[in-house]
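2024-03-11 09:14:02 INFO worker-7 job=invfold-0412 stage=load source=structure_tokens
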């Protein structure tokens, strides 16, 4: 795997991690309602689930590209379409309201971690995201080390992002300000996703 390809994977994984969704809500809820450490637990376990999705996706795609190149190409184009759809939704988003984390009874670190793990494992959008992403980078002669690097990159970036989220929101009230500019975050994210989809179409 070249450094340029790895940077491309890093960029799209960062975009996937920072996009607001149920995972962010879970980490924030545990951070605000319990403690910073609860947020860390949810973040680390969530990253474990993401890494598992990534590894399973890479292995499945590697087998597919070796046994059925035509089907692999269909999935690649489908992945490009999915990335374009995500980009369109982000570009046309009107922004999110202020997230409400609500009140909750204190829980154990293990329960916080389990919540983080399950929100990643039971989220079918993650599977679609990784199929759309990794289908652009998997090849028939890809080595095991490259596959493990892709897995570690996805899981590591996800974990670092949500640990940062827990760290920031456990010591300052920046959520309102962040969401106040959420529309611009959506616009930038959407443009990058649309650009990646266009790259897939023009190079396939």
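2024-03-11 09:14:09 INFO worker-7 stage=emit residues=204
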């Amino acid at each position: 795997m070249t450094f340029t390809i790895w940077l491309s994977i890093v960029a799209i994984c960062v975009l996937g991690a920072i996009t607001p969704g149920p995972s962010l809500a879970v980490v924030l809820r545990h951070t605000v309602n319990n403690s910073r450490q609860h947020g860390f637990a949810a973040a680390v376990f969530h990253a474990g689930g993401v890494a598992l999705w990534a590894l399973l996706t890479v292995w499945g795609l590697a087998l597919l590209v070796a046994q059925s190149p035509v089907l692999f190409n269909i999935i690649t184009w489908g992945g490009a379409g999915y990335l374009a759809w995500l980009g369109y939704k982000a570009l046309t988003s009107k922004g999110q309201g202020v997230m409400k984390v609500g009140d909750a009874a204190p829980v154990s670190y293990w329960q916080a971690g389990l919540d983080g793990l399950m929100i990643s494992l039971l989220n079918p959008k993650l599977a679609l995201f990784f199929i759309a992403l990794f289908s652009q980078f998997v090849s028939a002669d890809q080595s095991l080390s490259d596959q493990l690097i892709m897995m570690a990159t996805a899981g590591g970036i996800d974990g670092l992002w949500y640990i940062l989220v827990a760290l920031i929101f456990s010591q300052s009230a920046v959520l309102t300000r962040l969401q106040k500019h959420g529309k611009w975050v959506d616009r930038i994210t959407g443009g990058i996703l649309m650009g990646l989809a266009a790259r897939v179409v023009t190079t396939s």
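2024-03-11 09:14:09 INFO worker-7 stage=report msg="The radius of gyration is 18 Å."
2024-03-11 09:14:10 INFO worker-7 job finished
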